[in-house]
Write a structure and sequence with these properties.
2 copies of one chain form a homodimer. The first copy, chain A, has helices spanning about 15-30, 40-50, 70-80, 85-90, 105-115, 150-170, 190-200, 215, 230-255, 255-275, 305-320, 320-335; strands spanning about 5-10, 35-40, 60, 100, 125, 130, 140, 175-180, 205-210, 225, 285-290, 295. By secondary structure, chain A is an alpha/beta fold. In chain A, the strands form 2 sheets. Chain A has a 7-stranded mixed β-sheet, with helices on both faces. In chain A, strands 6-7-10-8-9 form a 5-stranded mixed β-sheet, with helices on both faces. In chain A, helix 1 crosses helix 11, helix 3 crosses helix 5 and helix 4 packs parallel to helix 5 (about 105-115). The radius of gyration of chain A is 21 Å and the shape is globular. At the A-B interface, helix 8, helix 9 and helix 10 of A face helix 8, helix 9 and helix 10 of B.
Chain lengths: ~325, ~325
């Protein structure tokens, strides 16, 4: 199968300039195969601006753009020539193996489900961002909001997908799978979580038990599993507290002249802090469980973040996760009978 | 009705010294009426140590202690003479109007339900801590984990209780009630949250709609309502990220000598930062919805935190929330018919 990444160039804060520049970087630095999808005239303008016409990066014209305000499910059906829709259609048709967008997450989910479709054995795809931990290794959170409703079986499928992803993409031999819960003891949580706990004990993964919110950032697991409602809340609380802390820290630093001097001298420390919290290096969040590789990059991605996303998506689609996932899901279904 | 706070002196990291000292402060500074519950010999020793025997603070002997490791529901039934159980029994019997403990939260919940009992019209009590916001005003989160299972009706009751609490205890004329959710638009979230949204629109409170996790700390609402599973996750994620940020900031500050100097000079700023995040001044989390006032103070409460908790519990039990709550709950039931 062909391995080429379809890059939706028309979504995100710095599109399409950052997208084209990131693609040029990824081709030059990592020999990633990429096809740019979007307004052809604009894309060619940026390729020339970057003196990259010699790379012969293919361009697929798409005349429409999906904005962040549009209703995802209907727009994906309506705007057949939107860059996001065209890029997904290319994966569906085998013209590309992976798709990346910086645009509307809801539209990405809708296009993933309606156009690419689910992998056999996966009932719900899961959005799986990496979040920072104290030891710098990070953890994969899934589902971070692809589905609002949860079932115990979904959570087991998330665990298996997360397990494989961290093995294949991050090279962790036995990723530790934790179940996000309100207490560490078995039997904690609501009905959904108690049932998921029992199923996870029998699942073909390295299940390490319940994980409380306060331990997530300490790095006690490599994959944290929960329903999409809970995962989205976790993601947004951690994001929200990140900006909260940096904001009030900056205020306190400049509140007094003494603080101002201290702040100026301490600024390398602050810069390092931000770097440790910046998960753009992870290249965005994969949408796991589709019949193809799909990545959501951050809306504010710069060229470097796009380049990393392209590298990861390219490597990931070469890893053969789909076939390995099928084997594990079959094993899990046998063990739960 | 008598207004006196039964203080469980035997739970928490610094018990019973900090408890007795906090009580002495509260009596001297705020004329709070308090009765100390716990090992009488130890309590009298501390009263003498603090030269406070002239205050004639009453002491109720209790021979047993509930540890953090014990199973809450069974221990409350078994250890009839545990300080926590005795303090709750005093509220039940009308000998005290409020109870405060720094001990086991699960045991507090169990004792509240089994001994004091629920207020008529409240199906589930809710644990309601205050959390910090950027504007320094904070928000009340409920339910933070009293119940693991959620129903739309519970969430409406939480909203009414939180609304009244912030009016009566914090003097906010029209507290803004937000529903924690995965998006701000109506119709977001799972079935539970969509139903709760509809009910809240008709409830006799100032409902401001869905609130995303990332906006909570910005201070967009005075009360944030959610089911106890979600609330516990929110609470622990915010707590966890608080210690995460201060820890890595400290590391970065001391990583380089330049950072070290900056850190030393910037330390007043760091101290202010910690102060803004320290919600011990709120005096702990009330357990709302019981037939009496019940407060969980932090396990690591010092004397000052205990004193604040006593003041708030005392004022709160004078505020007449029980009768006002009954009126609002009846109004809500009429409007939802």
């Amino acid at each position: 199968m062909i391995n080429i990444v379809a890059l939706d160039c028309m979504g995100g804060d710095y599109s399409p300039g950052a997208q084209v520049e990131g693609a040029v970087m990824a081709v030059r630095e990592y020999k990633v195969a990429v096809i740019l999808v979007g307004n052809e005239e604009q894309l060619r303008f940026h390729l020339e601006r970057l003196k990259a016409t010699d790379l012969a990066i293919p361009v697929r014209d798409a005349s429409e753009v999906i904005s962040n305000e549009e209703q995802p499910s209907s727009v994906v059906r309506r705007k057949k020539d939107a860059s996001l829709v065209v890029a997904h259609q290319m994966v569906k048709d085998g013209e590309a193996s992976a798709v990346i967008t910086c645009g509307n997450t809801g539209a990405l989910l809708a296009a993933g489900l309606f156009i690419i479709g689910r992998m056999p054995g996966v009932e719900r795809p899961a959005l799986a961002p990496m979040l920072p931990t104290h030891d710098g290794k990070g953890f994969l959170l899934l589902d971070a909001g692809a589905s609002a409703e949860g079932k115990p079986e979904y959570l087991v499928q998330y665990a298996i997908m997360g397990y494989l992803y961290r093995q294949l993409v991050h090279g962790i031999p036995e990723p530790r799978i934790g179940l996000i819960n309100v207490g560490s003891e078995p039997g904690k949580g609501n009905e959904l979580y108690r049932q998921a706990y029992s199923l996870l004990q029998k699942a073909p993964v390295n299940f390490v038990g319940n994980i409380e919110g306060r331990d997530l950032l300490a790095g006690v697991c490599d994959v944290a599993v929960c329903d999409g409602f809970t995962g989205n809340i976790v993601l947004k609380c951690l994001e929200g507290s990140g900006s909260f802390f940096t904001q009030i820290l900056r205020e306190e630093m400049s509140a007094s002249s003494r603080g101002l001097v201290g702040g100026a001298i301490a600024s390398p420390a602050l810069k390092n802090l931000r770097k440790r919290l910046d998960y753009s290096e992870y290249g965005g969040a994969p949408l796991l469980g589709l019949n193809g590789v799909s990545f959501k990059a951050h809306g504010s991605s710069n060229a470097r973040a796009i380049c990393q996303a392209l590298k990861i998506a390219f490597d990931f689609s070469e890893s053969g996760m789909v076939s390995q996932l099928n084997l594990l899901l079959a094993e899990q279904q046998r063990s739960s009978l």
